[in-house]
Amino acid sequence: MFMHVQRLINEIVPDEPDPAAANALQEGLGGQFGEMRTMMQYLFQAFNFRGATGKPYKDLLYGVGTEEIAHVELIATTISRLLDGSPRYKGSPTKPVDEPGKGGATPLSIALDHSNIHHYLVGAQGALPVDAAGNPWSGSYVYNSGNLVLDLLYNVMLESTGRLQKCRIYEMTDNKTARATIAYLIVRDQAHENAYAKALETLGVDWGKTLPIPKTNAERFPEVKKLLDQGLHLKQYTFSADDMSEAGKVFRGAAPASMDGGELVTDIAPPGFPMDIAVERPEEFGPGLDPELLALVQATAELELKDAEDPMAAANAEKTNGAKKSPAKKK
Ligand code: MN
Ligand code: MN
């Protein structure tokens, strides 16, 4: 099972909205070599893993796969932040749609001029599970042959291609929000090149001077340099809440995918960064809670709070009413 911690794996650095950068980042989310694929590929390889003697490899796949869930979360949130407010609409929040002919009567006109119209038309200035050309993410990207060496080889190829594409996206935008997330993912891709390359080394492969791919530590990108100085390319997380992972038996010793050497280390999880909730966007009818619906939400919250404070009274009320168990009471 998986637990969720309400923190982001890396910081979202504030900057101006940038819908073009948001669309470039869609490739890193829902593209053939994006975070949705890495997440699914490693988790399916872990779910289908055979052979008890190979547990440390299974645990390594689980650790990286779980981290990729957090990367999907990070890049999707980054895309949302880059889109949010990009129409620069300053309409009245109590009158979501201005009267035609008045100033600001086409609050979403930006959708016709910038990148992916679906960011405004299908969603409400949020990320989509598609690539930068709008193609939907596909399960057929996922590679899981059941042959450990072959799967690990594909994983090195996947991390390397992902890293190559992110280095290219870095060069497409100077937006600080976009670059901070791209830089983090470039360095973590290098850590994952290390993870799978190390696993293959333990299975007899000699990497010589092949890694990292692309052939740079990317230290010329200042945001990347900062993370390299912290050794983020040499660390792998197990995300094992009960600390049962044996991934550290594989991920240790000299780093294969590092141009200046270094020793590999494992940890349970990174400390993370605070998450915040996006503002409402009346011009997108998002979230669409009018005063009547808001009153209902408020009433439900108060009822659940009352249940939580007085579980006995709530249980008795349930017996009488035959009502369904309120999720708030599980606390
Ligand atoms: Mn990733
Ligand atoms: Mn990765």
Provide a descriptive summary of the structure in words.
The protein has 9 helices and 5 strands. By secondary structure, it is mainly alpha-helical. It has 2 domains: 268 residues, Ferritin, core subunit, four-helix bundle (Ferritin, Up-down Bundle); 42 residues, no CATH class. The strands form 2 sheets. The protein has a 3-stranded mixed beta sheet. Strands 1-5 form a two-stranded antiparallel sheet. α1 packs antiparallel against α3 and α3 runs antiparallel to α6. The chain is globular. The C terminus is likely disordered. It binds manganese (II) ion (2 copies). The site of one manganese (II) ion has 6 residues, from α6. The site of one manganese (II) ion has 6 residues, from α2, α3 and α6.
The secondary-structure class comes to mainly alpha
Q: Name the shape in a single word.
A: globular
Q: How helix-rich are the residues, as a percent range?
A: 40-55%
Give the tally of structural domains: 2
**CATH level 1 class label of the largest domain:** Mainly Alpha
- What fold name goes in the CATH topology slot of the largest domain? Ferritin
> How many E-type strands?
5
What order do the strands of the largest sheet run in, or round the barrel if closed? Answer: 2-4-3
| Major sheet characteristics | 3 strands, mixed
Average pLDDT, rounded to a whole number, is 89
Distance between the termini: 19 Å
Indicate the radius of gyration in whole angstroms. Answer: 23 Å
